Amino acid sequence: MRDTIIKIAKENGADIVGFAPAERFDRDSAVFKIMPKTKTVIGLAFRVLRGIYRGIEEGSTYYQYTTMAVENMEETIMPMAELKIAMELEEAGYTAIPQRRHQQIMAEKNSTNPEVAYDAVYRDKGVETQMDFFDAAVKCGLGEKGFYNTLLTDEFGPMIRYCFILTDAELEATDVIKPHLCDKCGKCRAACPGKAIDENGNTDPWQCAVYYNGANGTKNPFMPPDAFEGIDNRIEIIAGEAKVTPETARKILDKIYFYPPAQHAYQCSICGRACDIACYVHLEEKGVLTKKFKTPFRKREEWSFDVKDFG
Ligand code: SF4
Ligand code: SF4
Question: Taking the model in full, what pTM does it have?
């Protein structure tokens, strides 16, 4: 059964498959609230095409990241693989529950998900039990924890997305990875155009949402010179120096119209996940990633506009 699951996963786009026995999770964790008889958590990691990040690195195309690296991965590719594996488990008489991220539903009362429109998020929905995806990914042996609380994989660094299947089938465990990639260089933090990552590696979701959506004019080819007119600290915002609150973030996001959103409320990423790109470039330059390419990702100096262009 384990080999069959790996085969189906790979045939349906997964690149890394890991198996965490139930004992790796606390008895009061979401895993057992969702499925009390869980015996194994199956983790699936999918590469996000490196070429898609290049559009934003070069400033030549932005929409492909949102549609092909976020929306289609989350809404089509990943659920398909999860369903096919769950069907195989049910065919063999086991129970299986796929777990994909609820992009628009959260238990928090006043947080947000930078990948979707803030006003499309349903907050304070604690009754909808959701797994801790990052914790499960580490426990399934998909990768290690990077400084900014992102998953780093040997093959693709941070350029991956992941999802899970809970099952009552007992399947041989994958070892948890001993951290060896992250050297605490801090390049992920320094690369954020909105200073959304703090000194401990934690990301402020509202700060991230504002700058994920392109509030930094020096890194946004679509921003008009009069952007954020009517907001007192507009130059500070455009320079990536503003510290936002949930309230000011909402006001800024209401004035962000640089690019049309995709379906399912997905917002176009203008920062291009600069944190992930910086980490990837660093790991690639160190030669520690196992998936090799014929040319390096970063080919020239990073570009930027002058904040003076905005008045
Ligand atoms: S950029 Fe450096 S500090 Fe940040 S996660 Fe990658 S290796 Fe760790
Ligand atoms: S680089 Fe983008 S995705 Fe990363 S923390 Fe900053 S705003 Fe968020």
Answer: 0.95
